[in-house]
């Protein structure tokens, strides 16, 4: 995920608003206690997610891929007073870990965790979303996109994480694994979809930002 020099990364980190004390502890303890901590959004990406949420002021957010709950807290920061974030993950082992931090936040009552497979849960949701964040298994990214589009309001936004996939997207001849191919397919799919406008941002491991056309 490290595309920039360490000095540039450190400079960007220094000139980005800091994490809250709660997010700092969640970040630190994820790295200390949980397998694959690189899956955590982290400081700069977390502040980016928060900024986008504050810009949109969504009433409903859908997150696919909860992990340890860091990104959910960041996204929830910009919710309206009556807003709600629904976050979906199939890993029951991390549910208690995530909830233990949400419960320390004033945003806890705005976060609705659903345990299970997103492909099964999303079609059952009777909601219209203003913002969605895809940060789950790469081979289903295209499926998640299609499911979300059916629930997204016109003018709503989707953010999809890991669309640069540690730089493998520009070396497909060397990276023919299924996840890399799935990310390549997803990027092509959304770029060619007339229902959306898109920009690929080289933030951390790459974020695709999409706006559903009116």
What does this protein look like?
The chain is an alpha/beta fold and 214 residues long. It has a single domain, classed as Rossmann fold (3-Layer(aba) Sandwich). The protein is built from 8 helices and 7 strands; from the N terminus they run αααβαβαβαβαβαββ. Strands 3-2-1-4-5-7-6 form a 7-stranded mixed beta sheet, with helices on both faces. Strand 6 and strand 7 form a beta hairpin. The mean pLDDT is 95.
Short description:
The chain is α/β, with parallel strands linked by helices and 214 residues long.
Q: Which spans have pLDDT < 50 for at least 5 consecutive residues? A: none
Number of folding domains?
A: 1
Largest sheet: 7 strands, mixed
Give the class-level CATH name.
Answer: Alpha Beta
Shape: globular
Helicity, in percent?
A: 25-40%
Beta-strand percentage range: 15-25%
Report the strand count.
Answer: 7
Order of strands in the sheet with the most strands?
Answer: 3-2-1-4-5-7-6
Task: List its salient traits.
single chain, 214 residues, alpha/beta, Rossmann fold, seven-stranded mixed sheet, globular
List the helices and strands and how they pair.
Blueprint: H1 6-14, H2 21-33, H3 42-56, E1 60-64, H4 70-76, E2 84-89, H5 95-102, E3 111-115, H6 118-121, E4 129-134, H7 141-149, E5 152-161, H8 178-191, E6 196-201, E7 207-212
Parallel strand pairs: 1-2, 1-4, 2-3, 4-5
Antiparallel strand pairs: 5-7, 6-7
Helix pairs in contact: 3-4
């Amino acid at each position: 995920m490290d595309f920039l020099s360490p000095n540039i990364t450190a400079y960007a980190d220094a000139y980005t608003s800091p994490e809250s004390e709660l997010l700092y502890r969640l970040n630190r303890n994820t790295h200390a206690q949980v397998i694959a901590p690189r899956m955590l959004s982290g400081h700069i990406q977390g502040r980016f997610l928060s900024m986008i949420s504050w810009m949109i002021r969504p009433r409903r957010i859908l997150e696919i891929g909860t992990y340890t709950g860091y990104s959910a807290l960041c996204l929830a920061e910009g919710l309206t007073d009556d807003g709600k974030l629904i976050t979906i993950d199939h890993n029951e082992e991390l549910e208690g870990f995530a909830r233990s931090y949400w419960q320390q936040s004033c945003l806890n009552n705005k976060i609705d965790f659903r345990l299970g497979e997103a492909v099964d849960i999303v079609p059952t949701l009777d909601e219209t979303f203003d913002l969605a964040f895809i940060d789950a298994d790469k081979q289903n990214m295209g499926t998640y996109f299609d499911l979300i589009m059916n629930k997204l309001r016109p003018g709503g936004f989707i953010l999809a994480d890991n669309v640069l996939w540690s730089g493998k997207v520009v070396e497909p001849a060397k990276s023919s694994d299924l996840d890399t191919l799935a990310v390549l397919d997803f990027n092509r799919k959304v770029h060619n979809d007339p229902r959306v406008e898109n920009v690929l941002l080289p933030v951390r491991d790459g974020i695709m930002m999409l706006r559903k056309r009116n």
